[in-house]
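fyi for ur records
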Amino acid sequence: MSTMTIDAKDLHYTPLNKQIRKAIADGVKEITINNVLGQRFIGDGLRGDDVTITLNGVPGGDLAMFMSGPTVILHGNADHAPGNTMDKGKVIIHGSAGDAVAHSMRGGRVYVRDNIGYRGGIHMKQYMEKRPIVVIGGGARAFLGEYMAGGLIIVLGLGGVQPISEQGVGSGIHGGEIYVRGPVDDLYLGGGAKQAPVTDEQKTMIRPIIEDFAQSFGIDASPLLASEYTRIAATSARPFASKYTWE
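which gave:
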């Protein structure tokens, strides 16, 4: 059996996650879970590059935490911290997500069709070929990319949403980069962050990522590719060095 459907109605998250793990151990490659409502930790720590989990509903926090390989497709909104410390794989959210999206993420991709809450991408990091990527279709709340040490965040502002409209973007950033479609008011930049127009080379780099995001949601990528972008990055690898006193 390569496919399986689970009804999560009134099912506690512990037995639900046990069912998912057993199915993958038994060789199931495609799992559909219906009536998801608040169950936490779905997909946490799972492995398997050829495994796809489709969720219908609204899962609880830490979706795909520590996940390394599978693809999770969510038809609904996500709670806090989807992709938390994720190592590899993809999370595709057909809706919005809460706070701390991709917290400490270290690999793979998280695509959110609509908006995210506060502190998206906080503590993202990368090592050699592992580069986490987050794409937000709508807008992000305050402190996007806070203490970011690596990786890539792209904010598109689709649907007339202001992509960045609150302060603290890149606060304490010391690695990685944030790309925002359109201009960004300096007022919104956090300590240690700087901005500049995107170069042709940088635009070429993000092009296939935007195309993949658009394809995931059936969106026309043309206007996104034709737009101008702002790049936000670190002013220094040690943004708060002046706050310390050395004897």
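The longest strand covers residues 30-37. thats all i got for now
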